[in-house]
Design goal:
Number of domains: 2
Strand content: under 5%
Helix content: 40-55%
Organism: Paramecium sonneborni
Radius of gyration: 21 Å
Protein name: Myb-like DNA-binding domain-containing protein
Number of helices: 9
Order of helices and strands: HHHHHHHHH
Structural class: mainly alpha
Number of strands: 0
Largest sheet: none
Mean pLDDT: 78
Length: 169
């Protein structure tokens, strides 16, 4: 076992993790994430899940390890607020060693795509065109900065990303 991995010896961490699990709302989170569980495990099931996550090849994620990752990350961030994840703590508590980037990318793969699929209004079209025309260095467009500027001006509930704006232009 790697020194950065957990061994269920720090009871304060595990008590906090399990206590925080009780605040998770699977129904709310299932709108954002592809959850691998429908109900929260009791403490015995949680321990069994931890133990079964150790089994298998280190390169391939097994389903129990994915469930454990979801439960662990959500227990540390119950509302699943992006950019508020403590990946070092997650790494410490995982049954198998995974790099910080592996953990982060794996958890990001659980997000449901939420790109808006609504047509552009004439106001949105005009605003985008005006931002592009006002940009002095038109040959060096940065769609990400155009997208930020557009979202600040339009203040719509639908945030358009650079890819969508490039397609519309």
């Amino acid at each position: 076992m790697n020194s950065s991995q957990s061994s269920f010896t720090d009871l304060n961490d595990w008590a906090l993790v399990y206590q925080n699990l009780q605040t998770i709302e699977p129904d709310y989170l299932s709108s954002k994430l592809k959850l691998h569980f429908k109900t929260l495990p009791n403490f015995d099931e949680f321990i069994k899940l931890y133990e079964s996550s150790k089994i298998g090849c280190d390169e391939v994620w097994n389903q129990n390890e994915e469930i454990f990752l979801q439960l662990l990350v959500l227990s540390l961030n119950p509302r699943c607020i992006k950019n508020r994840f403590d990946w070092e703590k997650v790494q410490k508590l995982m049954p198998k060693f995974r790099s910080l980037s592996e953990l982060c990318f794996k958890f990001q793969s659980f997000y449901k795509a939420q790109l808006p699929r609504q047509p552009w209004s004439s106001f949105e079209d005009k605003t985008l065109l005006q931002i592009i025309l006002d940009n002095n260095s038109r040959c060096k467009k940065k769609w990400s900065s155009i997208a930020n500027q557009y979202n600040l001006i339009c203040k719509s509930e639908i945030l358009r990303n650079a890819h969508q704006q490039g397609k519309d232009y």
